[in-house]
Input
Amino acid sequence: MFLRLVGESFLRQKRRKLLAGIAIALGVCVATAMIAVATDIGDKISRELRSYGANLVVTPQQDGLAVQIAGVDLKPPGSRAYLNEADLLKIKGIFWHNNIVGYAPMLSVNVLLEPGQTDVTMLGTYFSRRVKFGVENFTTGVRVTNPWWKVKGAWPGDDSENVLLGERLASKFGKEPDNEIEINGWPHRISGILSTGGPEDDQIVAPLPLSQSILGKPGAVDRIYVSAITKPEDAFARRDPRSLSPEVYDRWYCSPYARSIAYQLEEAIPHSHAEPIRQIAQNEGVVLSRIKGLMLLVTLAALIASALAVSAAMATSVFERRGEVGLMKALGAGNLSVAGLFLAEAVLLAVLGGIAGLAGGSLLAHQIGRSVFGSTISIQPVSGALILLVGIVVTFAGSGVAIRRAVISDPALALRGEP
Amino acid sequence: MLLRATMFRRGRTASALLAIVVAAAAATAALNLFVDMQAKLTREFRNYGANVAIVAPPAELLPQDVLPIVESALNGRGYAAPFAYVVAHASNGTPVVVSGTDFARARKLNAWWQVAKWPDGPNEALLGIKAASLVSSDGKPFDLSFEGHTIRLNPVGTLQTGAAEDSRIYIPLSEFTAWTGVAPSTVEVAVSGSAREINTAIAKLRDALPRAEVRPVRQIIEGEARVFGKMRSTLLAASAIIIVTAALCVLATLLGWVSDRRRDFAIMKALGASQGLINSFFAGEAAILGAVGGVLGFLIGVQIAIWIGRVNFHAAVAPRLAIFPIILSGSMAVALVAAITPIFLLGRLQPATILRGE
Output
């Protein structure tokens, strides 16, 4: 009898049920989409923040002072320490290797340009080098770590003898892509003109082996820039790892803070000193926590709003049926069975509307991820189930108040159509 | 009659009103945040420091009054700090880069500098962490010489950035100039604003300083543009979802509310009311409901936006009054659509059919 009542109610009042169901579905849809976006936004934005360039730098431990003004190296040669290029691969072997987006080794050497000209700095680096670590293949170099570098012409090959000329040097010497330039007496082809808006505009950028052979130190690298996805720094991150107890140390080591990644890089690369680049690393944390906080609060507001909207829809749909309640009570139904009938309907509606909303919300989140970030945002099954559960509870609570008022009112009044 | 109709069904009207208020509040908060957050986020991005560098052309100096010129071009939208550089020698003969700057300005410009203590007196120096271990590892005063002139400096603080600054020594600009005779060669500028505003500022700086090179720092500008663009699109998508679903939700609720009143409609018609009168009656009621809901929702939504601004950005979100007409007309339009649609559909039916409950 009870089931039949519920079933008939759905069959006979298709329009009313549909409207209430739509309200629930929309509420759940907003909740799902916002929760999915808010939980994923941190990840997505940290990846985008990598377009600011490397946030960690590895230098030789015995490195002296850098004597550099506006990109020109004024340090006398011979007094420098170097890292070994072969150790670079170990970067991909550290605990947080999946968070390493890319790295670029640098080796600067002063060279003489064209006969009779003063010396300029040549920067040797990887452009877009394919590296194999274990079974993993990946591409790394300045094209990954420094996406703001623009080249007119073509990027040189990583094993070629071709170079990039900084744009101010190029205009000084009147060079175009594909011209030749004499470096230390040897002609090299200029494959492109580099524009960075930084000191590189006054430098020559060359494949790493070329600058190593000019320096006469095969395998030497004087610093490595590492671009890693990190977690915003907090008080815990700033603690000195040597002062931590073993358990706390493990927790520190296994958190992707810029400092703990730097610590692991130092471990991996012999005789090295790794450090976060504060301009990038610290501000990244600030921007990231602001954006995450913003999305969290917007989501919270949207959740409350959709809960209230669902409650309002349910209350309206119950108020409409006071005559029905009056009739059932006049025919001898108890308060409990009337309330039970309504609540059962509400739950059924919540489940149906909730599932539709969940599907719609996941689709929306997926679309936002694809159109804004070019990667998918998906909702975890656990949070999906949780949202559905909360949706049912909200529907329940929303109709509860209205049902109570409908049930306790006098059936005669309700049937006469009075409040 | 309108008033009584509303009062008569307090419960139903209240829940329909609640739906409108909630939707209008959510829409107001979303729109207000979307408009205001851009300014707030741009300010956060300014912590990345200089996005424009003004450099003296080779073998020339920047004009004496370069800072006032830059600041009048910025018009309060950003910070600027001058830097002068020389290579001096420590007492053991090691070369070290010494920079003269205005500490108060540098501090504002480079918020990420980790400084133990900022110098504020004469002969006080800020030492990069690497430079400190070289020239004054014990924290005692030290000598620097440049072209035969020697200066004795008091190390008061260390500076750590993880970049070139770690190898430098910073001293007040006035002492730097008195000691070396070298004037600032670079002014670093952090312009705040959108990409377009930054470009306008660069053009203004170029006009104001025709001899100097004004170089945009592409690393900072492009990184910001990219992250900011993504965040803006996400917020826009989120706001659109919230607003559209809120409107649809109100529509669904109100449709139920209005079509439940088909009996009223039928009775009025049976008593001889014209279709036009009935339409305007229902429309008027819906418009009032929409207006009241829109106003209440706007007030609540502004409060929500202010709260979010305070919690997340520690700064007030200015209520955008321009949003008010949008919210008001939006909620009234939704209410009207919800009211008119069922009446229009019912208009073709005979009142008797409705009254019989079919």
About this structure: The longest helix of chain A spans residues 278-319. Chain A has two domains: 2-46+287-416, 55-276. DSSP finds twelve helices and 16 strands in chain A. The CA atoms of residues 373 and 402 of chain A lie 44 Å apart.
